[in-house]
Amino acid sequence: VQLQACGGGVVQAGGSLRLSCAASGRPFSGYTTAWFRQAQGKERDFVASFRSTGTRHYTDSVKGRFTISRDHTKNTVYLHMSDLKLEDTAVYYCAVGRPILSSMTDPALYHYWGQGTLVTVSS
Question: Which residues of the chain fall below pLDDT 70?
Fold first, then answer.
């Protein structure tokens, strides 16, 4: 599976962005798709996931502001981000894997990664 992420950019605090991650080589069905982010000098952190069952999970800091969605016809996963805050600034990565529910926030359990797209939130 090859993942191509895009949609990052510079946005003012309170603004919105939509990230996209298109997969080639294998459909998403049966896999969990997720977004992680890594701020400069920090570890890669879980943001959101969309499991093959259709359930979605979010880290607490983005609940109510971010929405993960998936289009099976386009084999693409999206991250809709609104009310962006300065602390959302990071490189965002999409990932695909089959982690168990209790470990879905662990990046080591995802097999495929996109190249990352930078989101910069300015004041």
Answer: none
